[in-house]
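Open question from group meeting: does this chain pack into something compact, or does most of it stay loose? Before anyone orders reagents, we agreed to write out a predicted structure and look at it together. Recording both the input and the output here so the notebook holds the full record.
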Amino acid sequence: MNTKRLKLIKSSNFNNLSVMEKRVALAQDVLQRVGAKTLVASEDQSFFYVIGKGIKHGDKTVINNAVCEVCVKGAILCSFIGNFNKYDMGGLDYNTVPDYPPELLEIFNPAMLDAMEIAFEKETDIFGNDTDYDTMDSLISTFPQFKSHERLIAIMENIIKNEGKIICNDGIVVE
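Structure tokens returned:
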């Protein structure tokens, strides 16, 4: 399925990185997957969907050899699963938001994941979100791209450029 071979992150190298460096590494991996056409951004996706296999199939082998439709949170999770195979898809169905692997939440805390989702979806009505309205407006205006895949790329590039943080155009920092 993928148009070029993915270069996976080595666990031994990854484990020696700081939290912010791990964010950058996963953001770079997401961009690689977008470039390889194994991740396709979709605002209509509630999390991620492995094309041809459904949402319950998400081990490392499947993720790395299929096309996945994703929101921004799904992109990060696919990157994490694709590199480290640390997720049990057991009870997940299309209408539920899964619990993230604890190791991933140590890297991307819920506030950061919510901020990324607000920027990606361009809306403030994200379930369970505690982000203040000024930050939400700032996130939405910082990523005005019309196509979802362009926003996904812009969000990942912002995280890489800002060493693991999102820095909005008006200077608001999300970490």
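Observations to bring back to the group:
Strands lie at 39-41, 48-50, 68-70, 166-167, 173-174.
Residues 19-35 form the longest helix (17 residues).
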